[in-house]
């Protein structure tokens, strides 16, 4: 049982519109000591090749997350009775300067890891994930990557030779020996391509790839089993790009791609996943400037992050509800 002081504010006692929004109304802390999971914002869109605005994503997710409640009925766990969690605010960034920003993000995540907590990060564009992997791999070794996305993000270079962008982190991760591609899987690829090898380049790097069309043919339960078999008992980094979801349900993203799963299908897949050795995770590419008045993308992103927390809680023998 966690310390009651580590639980979210009770929204039946203090209305959700009161106070400073933190993720799911968790306590705000300056460090991750004595935590199981630390929520950390990575507010950079320096790697965005198209729409900018994901730097505003972490706080948009926090604002929507106040709607969420601590008990996850799908896994039968009271998340914050099983996990001691807090919101650490945002890592520092240098707008417009990708290499220096990646250094700062890596240092922030390394500190969370050094404090003994699992980082659950809120993006930011997908370029931030390489910083997380650089922080996690020295502690855990090569990671199994579970990657939800409409795009492979395994391109080599952008715009005259730039090696770091939202489209390159999972090629760099293989090159830098941060992930074990033979134990990693990319799920949700779809849409038009820059080149004929946009998907096959991931296969060439060693990743398993399940396109959106293949996902619908395979079915949710079979896909959940395939993910579990792929990662085995290795330490896992789970990264969720919100453009995995069809833009009818998540319009506020960096690079929308028509033809994806609905919000319901997305959450069903996450809820079907078996507990695994999660050592880090992120939810990225939320762009509130395109989200509309209902903030439906931010709410879904917050729900995705909450489902990841429940997956962690169940994997650690979470307290039953």
Could you characterize the architecture of this molecule?
It is built from ten helices and ten strands. It is of the alpha/beta class and 321 residues long. Helix 9 packs parallel to helix 10 (296-315). It has helices at 57-65, 79-82, 98-114, 129-140, 169-175, 200-205, 212-218, 220-231, 263-272, 296-315, and strands at 37-42, 71-72, 77-78, 85-90, 118-123, 144-148, 185-189, 208-211, 235-241, 277-284.
In short:
The protein has ten helices and ten strands.
Shape: globular
How would you write the strand order of the largest sheet? 4-1-5-10-9-6-7-8
**Percent in helix:** 25-40%
Corresponding CATH architecture: 3-Layer(aba) Sandwich
SSE series: EHEEHEHEHEHEHEHHEHEH
Say which CATH homologous superfamily is assigned: Ureohydrolase domain
List the domain count as a whole number.
1
Whole-Å distance between the termini? 12 Å
Number of strands: 10
The number of helical segments is 10
How confident overall, as mean pLDDT? 93
| Low-confidence runs | none
Cα gyration radius (Å): 18 Å
Largest sheet: 8 strands, parallel
CATH class: Alpha Beta
SSE arrangement:
Blueprint: E1 37-42, H1 57-65, E2 71-72, E3 77-78, H2 79-82, E4 85-90, H3 98-114, E5 118-123, H4 129-140, E6 144-148, H5 169-175, E7 185-189, H6 200-205, E8 208-211, H7 212-218, H8 220-231, E9 235-241, H9 263-272, E10 277-284, H10 296-315
Parallel strand pairs: 1-4, 1-5, 5-10, 6-7, 6-9, 7-8, 9-10
Antiparallel strand pairs: 2-3
Helix pairs in contact: 1-10, 3-4, 4-5, 8-9, 9-10
């Amino acid at each position: 049982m966690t310390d009651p002081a580590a639980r979210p504010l009770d929204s039946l006692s203090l209305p959700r519109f009161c106070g400073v929004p933190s993720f799911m109304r968790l306590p705000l802390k300056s460090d991750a000591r004595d935590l199981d999971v630390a929520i950390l914002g990575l507010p950079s869109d320096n790697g965005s090749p198209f729409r900018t605005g994901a730097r505003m994503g972490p706080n948009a997710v926090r604002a929507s997350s106040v709607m969420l409640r601590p008990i996850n009925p799908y896994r039968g766990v009271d998340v914050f009775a099983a996990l001691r969690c807090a919101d650490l605010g945002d890592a520092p960034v240098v707008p417009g300067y990708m290499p220096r920003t990646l250094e700062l993000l890596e240092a922030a995540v390394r500190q969370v890891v050094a404090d003994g907590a699992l980082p659950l990060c809120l993006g930011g564009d997908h370029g931030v994930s390489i910083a997380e992997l650089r922080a996690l791999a020295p502690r855990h070794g090569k990671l199994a990557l579970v990657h939800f996305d409409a795009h492979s993000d395994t391109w080599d270079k952008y715009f005259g030779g730039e090696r770091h962008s939202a489209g390159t982190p999972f090629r760099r991760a293989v090159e830098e020996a941060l992930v074990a591609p033979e134990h990693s899987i990319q799920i949700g690829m779809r849409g038009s391509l820059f080149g004929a090898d946009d998907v096959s380049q991931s296969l060439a790097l060693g990743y398993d790839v399940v396109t959106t069309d293949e996902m619908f043919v395979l079915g949710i339960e079979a896909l959940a089993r395939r993910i579990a078999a792929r990662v085995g008992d290795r330490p896992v980094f789970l990264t969720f790009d919100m453009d995995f979801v069809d833009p009818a349900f998540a319009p506020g993203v960096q690079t929308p791609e028509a033809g994806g799963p609905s919000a319901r299908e997305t959450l069903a897949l996450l809820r079907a996943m078996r507990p695994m050795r999660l050592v880090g995770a992120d939810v990225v590419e939320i762009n509130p400037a395109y989200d509309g008045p209902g903030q439906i993308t931010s709410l879904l992103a917050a729900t995705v992050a909450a489902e990841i927390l429940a997956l962690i809680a169940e994997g650690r023998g979470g307290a039953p509800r």
